[in-house]
Structures are given as C-alpha cells and as structure tokens.
Amino acid sequence: MKKLLYITVNSKPEELSSSRTVGRQLVNAILKKHPSMAIEELDLYQEHIPQLKYNYFNSRSSIVKGEALSDLEAGGQDEINQITKLCDQFKDADIYVLAAPMWSLSFPAPLKEYIDCIIQADKTVAFDNEKPYGLLDDKHRVFIYVQSSGANIPWIIRPALNKGLNYVQDIMKFLGISKFEELLVDGTGTTELDRQEAIERAVSRIDTIVDQI
After folding, report:
1. In angstroms, rounded to a whole number, what is the distance separating the alpha carbons of residues 69 and 82?
2. Of the N and C termini of the chain, which has fewer Cβ atoms inside 10 Å?
C-alpha cells in the first residue's frame, strides 16, 4: 500500500495558516485520486523533535546502537528511539507533502531539526570512501513543498529569496527523491482578502500537480 506523509510546520490552527489550508486541500485531492493510499500526519509543533547531541552518535549520521545505546541515560535512549521512529516513518513513505511558511527567507526551526533526524546512515544515506549518497532512490517517490509567503516574489529573484525551498529541494534530491514539486502560496499580504486570494491562486494549481504524481 502506498503511503502519504503529510508534514506541517506552523503553530497556527489550520484555518489560520495559509500553508496548512492549501496543504490540506492538496492532501485531500491526492487521496481522492488514490483512495487506497494510507496517510500519516506529522505536526512538527506537536511531535517531539529531538535535538541531536554528540553522545547520540558513534560516527557521522550514525546513531548509537547496542551497548552504546544501553549506556545512555534513560532520557537519551528515549531520544534515540524517537529519532529512529521519525526516520523510519519518512523512509517508508512514497509521497510527501510538506506545508510551511516562509520565515526570514527560510522556514521555522523545527523543520531543520526534523531534517537532521531523518538523515541517518544505512537508512536514508550511506557512505562510499567517506562520500555520502542518498538511499531513497529505491522506489518512485514524490515530494511536494507547500510554502506561504506574505509577498508576491517576482520569478526572476525567486531563486535568491526562496532559500528555504531551495534547501529542502537540494536535500531531497541528495536523498534520492528526484520528483520535487512546489506549490507556492505567494502574496498572502496583510488583509484576509489578500490571504484568501493567494489561497485561491494556489488551490487552482492543485489538480495539475496531482496529475503529475
């Protein structure tokens, strides 16, 4: 059974968040076209995302196991188990929808901590002569990044300003996910009318994106 992982990173309720509003409509459209697909939802403001500490690793991107794990204090073992859970959940998915606002030309901090958790040796990455490479090219995967921003960003300067989107795309490509789509909710502005118009513009692109999955 195909799995869809819907990740959100906004502390606002869904009805007040432009990215989550559009993300939900996108997810619903995917499930309507693929009714047998299973879905898991991950709210990075509700789920505990561990900070990666040096004593959780025995080498680069390699979480401690066995005796080294049992030697950690109980809290540390819990953190390792949570990191493993997040990584396994990500690895098991086929389609990813990530809904996030643009903050300071990037994204909210919990997303970076989450990405650090899912990059793990022998799960999502491996090393060849100390050179890392991704392992997620083992099946067809699709990643869709839904980003809201207050301004209408001209396309000519979008690559320079969309640092968060660029980073996520680069990381997913490195991991082996070659199919990457963006759904931008630009121009949410300062009024509710601005926001609703931006949402409508983004929603109008959903069917096109779903058809490409």
Report:
1. 13
2. N
